[in-house]
Amino acid sequence: MKVRNIITSGLWSNHPIFRQLLGMCPTLAVTTSLTNALFMGLSVIFVLTSSSFIVSLIKRLVPHQVRIAVFTVIIASFVTMVDLFLKAYFPQISRALGPYVPLIIVNCIILGRQEAFSSRHSVRESIIDALSMGTGFLWGLVILGSIREILGQGTILGRPILNIEKMLVMMLPAGAFFTLGFLIALMNRLKKRC
Amino acid sequence: MLKELFYIFISAVLVNNFVLTYFLGICPFLGVSSRIKSAIGMGLATTFVMSFASSICWVLYYLFLEKFGLSIFLEYIVFILVIASLVQLVEMFIRKYSPFLYEVLGIYLPLITTNCAILGLCLFMILKKYNFIESVVFGISAGIGFSLVLIIMASIREELKYADIPKNFKGASISLITAGILALVFMGFGGMLK
């Protein structure tokens, strides 16, 4: 597979959120503010890249029947690292993200990439794929987080920028569903154009 | 005692529904909820796994991990392994006793492992410091709540097939917007808990 294809696949043509509809749980839950969205996206990039690296290294050693269990344990170990790191250095963020940090373990994007890509490609390709999928996920979260923070609180990264009536619904779970629903429709429209 | 258990039940089924307020289990929610029959099957399988997962995770966490001071490092890994083995068990059970259900749920069964609702259940149970009986009730009610929303969604989507939806909104987009409206509806139950 060409490196260029792998990169564009994660960033656009096969985007994890808008095209594959994976990783919905953190996408909807933590995007009440841009800060949360950024931290979640970066954590996922770290976990995805490290697990892809390890999985592609040991792919020949893992028996086929237990591969899912092995992948999950690898992912869970990295998530534990991220969780402890956030707790130690960013306690406030860690509290805001709550159980959604450990829930990265069951983020379908990560397991999906191990199963579909890293377990059958070289180390180099797997790392490129993980970085591009992770970055794709990050920009999706950033867009969603910015829209919800601006409309819901009139701020961006905690700084006030818009003096508008705050739309409470954007902070509620319903706002997350609506925003993502409309964004996916927008992506469908853009896809048809190009 | 009974009052508290009832409180947990109502909270998990209606007020703090796993799908609509915590965004747990969105992937099967979008994937399986197009037909009522498969929604019921998925709901049953998930409820079954949830009620066992909560009790087993409780026992392991408090009688083993906590006792030996391992909870910080091993919590997530132990939980995900318990869930993965349970799912395997349910899969073998369904394959043997209901080939029809097995055919319908096919690819979704192994996906229960990465259904965030199950791991989320175990994490919330620890966060809320429930005792053993409360945890079991919490597990069963969360499963019922999940199935309820899944079935409601499936019945709406069966009708949506005949609706005249703008082309770009077809599929995931309109499902998410419907889920948003459902989330608003379920907020009405908030007044039940004071």
Please give the domain count of chain B: 1
Please indicate the percent range of residues of chain A in DSSP E strands (runs of 2 or more).
Answer: under 5%
Total discrete domains of chain A = 1
Write down the overall geometry of chain A.
globular
Strand segment tally of chain B: 0
Distance between the termini of chain B: 17 Å
Low-confidence stretches of chain A: none
Question: What would you report as the Rg of chain B, rounded to the nearest angstrom?
Answer: 17 Å
Q: Helix and strand succession of chain A?
A: HHHHHHHEEHH
Structural class call of chain A reads mainly alpha
Helical residue percent band of chain B:
over 70%
Could you say which structural class the secondary elements and strand pairing of chain B correspond to?
mainly alpha
Average pLDDT of chain B, rounded to a whole number, is 87
Give the quaternary arrangement of the chains. Answer: heterodimer
Strand order of the largest sheet of chain A: 1-2
Radius of gyration of chain A: 17 Å
Name the chain pair whose interface involves the most residues: A-B, 42 and 46 residues
- Give the fraction of residues assigned to helices of chain A: over 70%
